[in-house]
Amino acid sequence: MARARPADGSARERILVAAEELFAAGGFDATPTSRIAERADVPKGLVHYYFRRKADLLTALVERLPDERIETAKVVVPGDIAQSLRRLVAELDRRLSSSVMLSHLLWREADTHTGVRDALQDRYQQLVAQVRAVILAAGVGGLAVADIDSASGLLALAVSYRHSVARHAVDEGPDEMERELEFIASALTARASERGAGTGDELGGALKPGQ
Amino acid sequence: MARARPADGSARERILVAAEELFAAGGFDATPTSRIAERADVPKGLVHYYFRRKADLLTALVERLPDERIETAKVVVPGDIAQSLRRLVAELDRRLSSSVMLSHLLWREADTHTGVRDALQDRYQQLVAQVRAVILAAGVGGLAVADIDSASGLLALAVSYRHSVARHAVDEGPDEMERELEFIASALTARASERGAGTGDELGGALKPGQ
Amino acid sequence: MARARPADGSARERILVAAEELFAAGGFDATPTSRIAERADVPKGLVHYYFRRKADLLTALVERLPDERIETAKVVVPGDIAQSLRRLVAELDRRLSSSVMLSHLLWREADTHTGVRDALQDRYQQLVAQVRAVILAAGVGGLAVADIDSASGLLALAVSYRHSVARHAVDEGPDEMERELEFIASALTARASERGAGTGDELGGALKPGQ
Amino acid sequence: MARARPADGSARERILVAAEELFAAGGFDATPTSRIAERADVPKGLVHYYFRRKADLLTALVERLPDERIETAKVVVPGDIAQSLRRLVAELDRRLSSSVMLSHLLWREADTHTGVRDALQDRYQQLVAQVRAVILAAGVGGLAVADIDSASGLLALAVSYRHSVARHAVDEGPDEMERELEFIASALTARASERGAGTGDELGGALKPGQ
DNA sequence: AATGAATGAGACTTCATTCAT
DNA sequence: AATGAATGAAGTCTCATTCAT
């Protein structure tokens, strides 16, 4: 075996990348560490040198999850919920595109590995909060709390679904997403105006974004 | 090993039940056939007698998926979309409750086993179609095709999510579902009335349910 | 691999024999199960089929220890302690000769494996009791309890030593044993007569052999 | 890893101490060099820097064996064999107490490592010679060579047993030792007087201690 | 039809040892 | 002199699968 120096990335890094790809493709259990070593072009022993147990690979992978926090101000178009959300989704897409496999992997292994599950839930919660924050910031006023919750939940669901699980489902493409997004946005504003003012449950200024 | 009496189920049946539970709990790869035999209380050899390859167990499991087709008429409350959907979801819940594990299992193994993936997609498509059919049947008139698509997609997503994947997510409980359902229903009607009549893209009678 | 039917002993038996020899020769830890399989001429998997964990081999070996209980009456020559002990030792030698390796092995692994240690201690205790019983049965009368205890302990030590540990020590051969045995026997009788009668601590009839 | 200061012992020394403890506790084969490094609080590489092969640790350990030669004159009480032996044993106990682990270790590994075996045998021979020398020096006269040999052998056995192997056996405590010692001593004198003078096999001055 | 012994490929993991620095 | 990354051989154990009965 000639291989010796890092080549493009450190050996450790190459191992992680290989693991991510193989886990995502075939599942954690079905992927032998030997195949990971092979793909990373490192000797088998090195995999266990860096990650004593196979599960440590998963842990390390989870810790590599990019922080997908997006500054609300950057995407919000005041007064236009649909456009704001559209820009949020676009930004999320851009950021997450690098980790679709990883995200997908998480869904598969969440049952069996605590810690993976936790990371997954955190991520989802963060997503909901972000959507919520954008809706509020773009908010036209007069929105009911419950409606915002529903809208955030549904959109987060759709986004998360596309990024993590969609592999199995019929490939809906971006059109579907756009349509649903628009539906949600319009629904929000429609409901707002329909209610007129002062139903009592609309938002005051006190609502802290992200909570 | 004295065990013999078919008693509560044939040996074959017991094996399948055991496999379903174990696969769902730990994943396909992580579940040894020996443990399946053990749980089914059958000799180890019998598992392979009925299912020569381990994957055959998965195949058989998929074929056992209950038909969840629900007669539209049974749940529709004409003129009341929200109520109609609510009854649809309740009925789905009732039927699917017996196969949550199985459903969940399918998500996990869909990547690796064609046939599982196919079954999963069929199921999802069927679900969308059903929601759609109900919306149409309860339909207040003046609904845009795009809106119906979006609404069906979102609700199907929420339902499917709860039944198959939700195990990992924060337990939202039925309230969340109800709120989202209501949001979608109101959105639909709100948008309908808002558009008034005759925008040209509302539904004719031609739309075939299930397509 | 053609091998199939038991040949000379059952496969299980051959595995145990191979394990005993190899463990005794090289120690438990230094002996790979693969070499055991090789020597027993069975496929590697079969070793683990019968003995799931390597340590189970040790356990099984311990359970195979022959019962070395010898009927006191058979060896005792009344009135002649030396001859009685000589015959006891001869009989023990005859019985144990088949398990010297095993005995030796036990000493080595007693530290690390409870259960091995227990078996070893039981064996030793049994040995002491047996020597004691023979001395009593051959007893010339007027023996002090303490002397009998000492004599039993010392002889048991010498025997046990020869059978289990002696491999490392200078090979003393049977002559040494004979000399020590005679020394002990004469010492006993010498001490008895020297004390004369009635020092008060000699044995009554109440002393239960084996206790 | 800040560790640096030689403080209580040089790194090499700390490694040896750690090795001794771990080998004695778990056996040579079962003890990874990495654990030795850990316990000695030195980097893993340093262990192999000082001791290229793992077996070198054993060799070095053997060479560290304290010289247990005791000056005969220091313990002998002329005319009183029992007391002389008692003092010898006490002195041996005092010296050896620091190396019980090491002694024990030697027994375990003697099979597999020549050199360890040799050291062990030397030690034992030395012990026998020492007991012999003490008996002679305290000697009451009229002792038969064979008796002295037997007595030396038995006592050496008992001592060696306590120091090296006794870990497994029922804990007999010092009382047992004392009783056996006394038994041997009395036996010697009893036999001596019993024989009276001139059986012809008593000792001349020729017997070289240590042989 | 049913069973459990038997098989062997291969998984994960450990570890002594080497080597570049 | 000292270190820790790197290596690969080997070990234990698991398991799907086959086979004789």
Description:
The structure is a homotetramer of 211-residue chains. Chain A has 211 residues and is mainly α. The first copy, chain A, has 2 domains: 11-63, Arc Repressor Mutant, subunit A; 72-195, no CATH class. Helices cover 65% and strands 0% of the residues of chain A. In chain A, helix 6 runs antiparallel to helix 10 (173-195), helix 7 packs across helix 8 (116-138) and helix 9 packs antiparallel against helix 10 (173-195). The first copy, chain A, is elongated and about 65 Å long. The A-B interface holds A 25-27, 29-30, 104, 107-108, 110-112, 117, 120-121, 124-125, 146-147, 149-151, 153-154, 157-158, 161, 165, 167-170, 172, 176, 179-180, 182-184, 186-187, 190-191, 194 and B 25-30, 104, 107-108, 110-112, 117, 120-121, 124-125, 146-147, 149-151, 153-154, 157-158, 161, 165, 167-170, 172, 176, 179-180, 182-184, 186-187, 190-191, 194. Chain A binds a DNA duplex (21 and 21 nucleotides) through helix 3.
List keywords for this structure.
homotetramer, disordered N terminus, mainly alpha, 10 helices, 211 residues, elongated, 65% helix, DNA-binding, Arc Repressor Mutant, subunit A, 2 domains
List the helices and strands and how they pair.
4 copies of one chain form a homotetramer.
Chain A: H1 11-26, H2 33-40, H3 44-50, H4 54-63, H5 72-75, H6 81-96, H7 100-109, H8 116-138, H9 145-165, H10 173-195
Helix pairs in contact in A: 1-2, 1-7, 2-3, 6-8, 6-10, 7-8, 8-9, 9-10
Chain A binds a DNA duplex (21 and 21 nucleotides) through residues 1, 4, 11, 32-34, 42-46, 48-49, 52-54.
DNA-binding region (chains A, B, C, D): 32-51
InterPro entries (chains A, B, C, D): Homeodomain-like_sf (IPR009057), HTH-type_TetR-like_transc_reg (IPR050109), HTH_TetR (IPR001647)
Keywords (chains A, B, C, D): DNA-binding
